[in-house]
Amino acid sequence: MKYVLLALIGLFVAMYAYAVSTIEVLGDPDRTTVVWATDPNPARTKQVGIFEELNPDLEGLVDKSDATKLIVRCATGTGPDVVDIYDVFSLATFAEAGILMDLTPFADSLGFGLDDTYAPLREGLSYEGKQYRFPCNVHANAIIYNTKILDDHGAPLPQPDWTWEDFIESALAVRNNPSKSGEEHIPFANWNSEWVFRDLLIGHGGDFFTADGLHSRLGEEVSVQAIELFRDMALKHDIMPTSAEAKSLSSQGGWGSGGIAWFFNQQAAYIHIGRWAIVQVPVYLKRNPDLVENLAAVALPRVPGHPSRGIVGTRAAGINAKTKNPEAAKRFLQYLASRDYGALIAADGDALPPNPELARTGEDLVNEHITDPAFHQPFIDAVDNGVTIKMSPFIEAQLVQRWALEAVEQVENGADPRTAITRVADEIDDRIRQNLRRRSALQAKYEQVTGKAYNDDWWKEKVAAH
Amino acid sequence: MKLPFDNTSTRIRFVALGLLGFMLAMPFIWMVGASFKSRAEIEAGGIHIVPEEAHAENYPVLFGQQPEPVTGEKLELKFGRWFFNSIFIAFANTLIQVLTSALAAFAFARLEWRGRDSVFLLYLATMMIPGLTLMIPNFQVMVWLGFLNTYHGLIIPASFSAFGTFLLRQFMLGIPKAMDEAAYIDGASKWQTFTDVILPLARPGLIALALITFIFQYQQFFWPLIMLNDQQFFPLPVGLLELDSTYGQQTELIMAAATITVTPLVVLFVIFQKFLVRGIQLGGVKG
Q1: What is the pLDDT of residues A69-98, one digit of tens each?
Q2: How far lies B67's CA from each of A163, B59, B164, B251, in Å?
Q3: Strands A130-131 and A126-127
Q4: What is the pLDDT of residues A115-147, one digit of tens each?
Q5: Pairing between strand A58-63 and A312-319?
Q6: How many CB atoms lie within 10 A of CB A250?
Q7: Substitution target from A64, A183, A262, A266 for chain B, most B beta carbons within 10 A
Q8: Which residue ranges does chain A devote to CATH 3.40.190.10?
Q9: What is the pTM of this model?
Q10: CB contact set of B178 (below 8 Å; sequence gap of 6+)
């Protein structure tokens, strides 16, 4: 027994010695390191490489943290210096948690202020009047389609100013018309149901909240129409797989998978996505050499009586409020606003560059793989015409996002769209009332927003009006 | 001679259990099959398990010995290192935890001292606190100690276990007191009694605890995820997440990685299942 124990301890010592002696020391002791928490897109390595070339005294390290880890690390003062925030929901959560540094006092003078990027995006970079982030890339969705598949099924090609009815007609042709090649295709590669719904909501003239943030707008008729259209596409016309079907059809996960893989493998006719998807094109070219010549893009279909419009979003970087290298982090954000970084984004196809000067027309975005300016133009138009989702300071953003997603999934599973979406609206309104009743800080905010004194029955006025 | 399939109810039971076993094994069988498929075959869909053509190169690709066939580039991952880390961290935790648990169990089971049972109950009560509630305080302690991105941060917090102490104490309580008394009469010290008498007799319990600890530590995910940023310290479960999030389209590689990940556990189970079952019975825990 003793010898066994000694042998095991010996083995442990040997393994420990090997483990410790083979650790590579990361980071250059002569340079300040900027740690950037971002997504696992392999393009980040190149982007950091150029940052280091332009800033020889700084070293960039990419940290592919997930959200939970990020919050724990930032809260304990061990987080990265620069943090990517993916949407307005996360922005609100991170800002309220005190994780992000307020950039407002210095952003303009350092060249990454709100005026240095696209006008429709500015609201989405701020929370409660303070700027917390600057874009790494800017995206709004358009429709990318495969001309070869549409032709194969004799489906009508999209036209500018088309409507969702036109879209459905074309997608139904892909589903119903036998193809000349004999192959079957998915009409619409839905890779993210929530995004489709949100764009439909904005396209119908809806939003999540009223301007004062005190009420949900999801119970309005336009919201019901939006989710009914979503239901029709998924269940009635059966032109797009539901989230569950997409998951069961796809054995894949991770970055750039599922519907995106179907589309770029030329198995699906349409996809609703941002320009960032084309960063994937080189991966698929080897097996689909004719892919690029078959790709085209067009603006989102519009709802009759409304312009083509969707959400403009951004993966945008904020600075960790507890960073040990605030000056280096600011220089990283300056890099994001630079022409060098913007040119790289444009060339890689990773959505649109933060600097609008580098994306005035489709010509500016032509890259090695997709040389037709007409392909890129709809994405610029989508950003210019897009809107940012309105958030409310009176409710937890992640909760709203979760409830909305649950409603979408319920509808995909056959629930009545009107019931599902109005229930979410009611839940949001209830929560806002609860939060206001319990938190004096929110009551002060209420008084600031409305100019009225707060009382617990404030909401009855609106209900009575209804 | 009476065969096990002699009566109808036994046959029905065998068929039902066989089907259930097959259903449980199916994902693992598919995983191994998919790890030998080409990307094209996986993306083509279908539910066939055996690959049309075996692609063993998925394994060397994973270890960075060959470029990935579709992109022609080597993966920027340290899969071999992750495998070593998993084995090393699980082994270190197992060794230290078994030693500390055995010492504590000896004190609680064989030595008489004032307040022993109260201290034991207090120690046992720590098992009732959900691990996640301790995550932030533990993490903060690790930050103070400077253990982020180190092996120490993964090994030291797992060095002591109330469950291990409880399991070995139960085992040691089953050893007749007369053994210690005989040792003391022969002039043995408490330490000699522990090392020369109790530990050898508690061997089945030690093996059971070692197996349970190794399996548990080998599968640890959330703590290493929080503690580590640097790829070179990742154990396999965190490495699999990295692989999935970076190369999620490469299902065949993910399946090869998953196959490699589960293999040590399957081997351990096959060799030591008798001890494992005994340990689970003794500790009254689910596997």
Answers
A1: 788 788 788 889 999 998 887 888 888 888
A2: 46, 11, 44, 16
A3: antiparallel
A4: 999 999 988 899 888 999 999 999 999 999 999
A5: unpaired
A6: 20
A7: A64
A8: 32-140+312-384, 142-298
A9: 0.75
A10: none
Looking up residue B128, the CATH number of its domain turns out to be 1.10.3720.10
pLDDT the model gives residue A256: 43
Query: What single letter denotes the amino acid at residue B215?
Result: I
pLDDT digits (tens, 9 = 90+) for A331-354: 999 999 999 999 999 998 889 999
C-alpha to C-alpha distance for A385 and A382, rounded to whole angstroms? 5
User: Would you call B140 an interface residue with chain A, using a CB distance cutoff of 8 Å?
Assistant: yes
Whether B232 has its CB under 8 Å from any CB of chain A: the answer is yes
* Spatial distance between the Cα atoms of A429 and B33, rounded to a whole number of angstroms: 51
- In this predicted structure, the answer to whether residue B286 has a pLDDT above a threshold of 50 is no
Report d(CA A133, CA A85) in Å as an integer. Answer: 8
Chain A positions contacting chain B at CB under 8 Å are 1-2, 8-9, 11-12, 15-16, 18-20, 23-24, 26, 35, 39-40, 42, 45, 63-66, 68-69, 72-73, 75-78, 249, 251-257, 261, 265, 283, 286-287
Closest CA to B259 of B103, B23, B36: B36
Which of the four CATH numbers 3.40.190.10, 3.30.1490.20, 3.40.630.90, 3.40.50.920 does domain A32-140+312-384 have? 3.40.190.10
The string of DSSP letters for A144-206 reads EEEHHHHHHTTPPPP-TT-BHHHHHHHHHHHHHSPPSSS---EEE--S-HHHHHHHHHHHTT-
Report whether pLDDT(A252) > 60: no
Helix (H, G, I), strand (E, B) or coil at B41: helix
If one counts the domains in chain B, the total is: 1
User: Between B72, B225, B246, which is nearest A40 by CB?
Assistant: B246
- Pick the residue from chain B with its C-alpha nearest to A17: B88
Multiple choice CATH, A142-298, 3.10.350.10, 3.40.190.10, 2.30.130.40, 3.40.50.10490: 3.40.190.10
Q: How far is A93 from chain B (nearest CA, A)?
A: 19
